[in-house]
Amino acid sequence: MTIDDRLYEHVEGFHGYKMIPLEIRSIIEIGAGPFTQIQYLLTPFRSIKQITLIEPNALDYMKLNNCAYRGGHLHGHPVSIIAESIEIIMKKRRQNKIFLNSSEYYSALISINVVEHVSDALEYFRGLYDLLEDNGLLIFNERWYDYPQQGDCLLDNAEFLHPIRITKWVIDRFLDQFQSIYVNFNRTRRQTRSICFEHGIYFIGRKKSKCL
Fold it and tell me: Domains, the chain, ranges and CATH?
């Protein structure tokens, strides 16, 4: 299993993904990086029929020996790869220039620590909601700060790669559109040792059929 220093932190935050159903028709991950959290969902007891990864740097990552989906497969499962940002993809979808799969929507979506990397946070959150079918499963993690300036403690000198910092209010408004199954606000072991004012949420929920 391919690992890096924060993948296990997220597995811990989601309590080993024990709340994830054993049958998933299609799943998409936003900002998969070179490793992808989906690898932790691929167990002998879970069936995932279709896997799609959105990762702007995917073509470069796939040149690395430790890329989990190098060769277009993830632990033997074929993977569809879209090497564009979520913002660009959503704009193309609205212009009817791209359809990400035959059904256009996904039964599950995973996004972990992505918003600080995007250039348009509203487009990012809109994409998470719009890519999911009604009652689709959201697997979501973000870190947040009481005041956005506090993010500079972690992300100082990295504004080009991490331009966005959000507060809990933003996360709460977005997650109001989902029926919660699992919520974990506990700080991870790394966060408890951090000198920065960093908080986070690990959330699993179902997209509400109608959002007012």
Answer: 7-203 (3.40.50.150)
